[in-house]
Structure formats: C-alpha cells, structure tokens
Design brief:
- This protein has about 200 residues and is mostly beta strands.
- It is built from one helix and 13 strands, in the order βββββββββββββα.
- The chain has a twelve-stranded antiparallel beta barrel with strand order 1-2-3-4-5-6-8-9-10-11-12-13.
- The longest helix is centred in the last third of the chain and has 14 residues.
- The two termini are about 20 Å apart.
Length: about 200
C-alpha cells in the first residue's frame, strides 16, 4: 500500500499569537483521509509522519450513524462514539476502551452549538468537555478545516486541507493535522471523528 507523508509543522515565530495559528507546544503531524480503506464503507483513515496507518474508522452503516468505533491499525477499538439519543441534547459522547472493555462513563462529551444564520470563520461550533477540562472546536476556512482551542485560547490541534511537498493542494477530504501533547492522541482522533460525523463525512 502506498504511504502518505504529512508535512512537518513549521516552527512558530516568537512574535506569533495563539489566534494567528501557532500551536501552544511541541507538535506532531498526521494526515487524515476522510475515507475508509474498506470497500463500500464510510469512515476515515489516519496516517502518521512515517506514512503508516495509525487510526481508522470503518462505518459499515449509513453515513452519520449514531454509533461508530475509533480503532488502531489492527482493529483494536479505542473509543466508542455515540450520538445522544434525543436530538435536543445535540451532542456526542466518547467511551474509552481499556483491556477490551468499554468504560461505563463517557471520557468526553461534545455539544454542538446552534446559531441562526451561516457559519463564519473562527466561530466556535462545538463545546468539548474532557473531565474537568474544557475546549472549543472552531471552524476555519475550507470545507473541513478546524481548530481545537483550550480555555486560554491556545490552539492544541489544527486541521486544514493538505498541500503536497511539491505544492499541490489535495482534495478537500485530505487534511493535515498538527496536534500538541496537551491532548492524548487517540482522544484527538476521537474528536476528529465527531467532527467528521457533524460534517456528514463518515
């Protein structure tokens, strides 16, 4: 299988501010392809900086299923992601798997924010709760581009349309994700999965 190589995140300049894009600590780069590698399924595939598959979602049901599973390369389930049953709750919950058992309580909650009118750039569209920590998911330019910011306004993860090493802009379902060490990697990928469900990509 051909590998996909993410570009390294540029080092932020000393004069940069959190709102202008630099992430708040050392970053790791991934490539996200909003498609499953399994024929006739929905989902996404995540590649690390070596071009190897590290996470995947294979949704055999219709798009925007109420329950999907984030897995590693070998198919080990890391998170079960469920849409809340009643639509007025407007959100998703993620349940972590530990030693082949799903936790009884959600590890995170995502609540979609509803506002009248069209969405604007740099507008928060989701509130994220991870225990006592709070984050916001912010829409950026592009069909699927987004940022996750903490309560201090610092960027902890950012995804935008991928540009190849020779300057070619790839399809809008191929993203370059830069993530800091502030949030555990599989949790970030679970939040990416929720965003894909919100945008009806998987």
């Amino acid at each position: 299988m051909a590998k996909v190589y993410p570009q390294s995140a540029p080092s932020p300049s000393p004069s940069s501010s959190p709102s202008s894009s630099p992430l708040c600590s050392e970053t790791e780069t991934f490539t996200i392809w909003m498609k499953s590698l399994i024929y006739h399924t929905n989902g996404c595939t995540v590649f690390d900086s070596n071009g190897d598959i590290v996470y995947r979602v294979d949704n055999y049901d219709r798009k925007c299923s109420r329950e999907v599973f984030l897995m590693d390369l070998r198919g080990k389930v890391l998170f079960t992601i469920r849409k809340k049953k009643f639509s007025f709750l407007r959100g998703w919950e993620g349940y972590r798997w530990i030693e082949s058992e799903r936790s009884m309580n959600p590890s995170f909650r995502v609540r979609k924010l509803y506002r009248s009118g069209s969405r604007k750039r740099n507008e928060s569209i989701c509130e994220i709760s991870v225990g006592f920590e709070r984050f916001s998911l912010v829409k950026m330019d592009g069909k699927l581009a987004f940022r996750i910011i903490n309560i201090n306004g610092e960027v902890v993860a950012e995804a935008k349309r991928k540009v190849s090493s020779n300057g070619i802009l790839l399809g809008d379902d191929v993203l370059s994700l830069n993530a800091t060490s502030q949030i555990e990697r599989s949790l970030i990928m679970a939040l990416v999965t929720v965003y894909g469900l919100i945008r009806r990509q998987m």
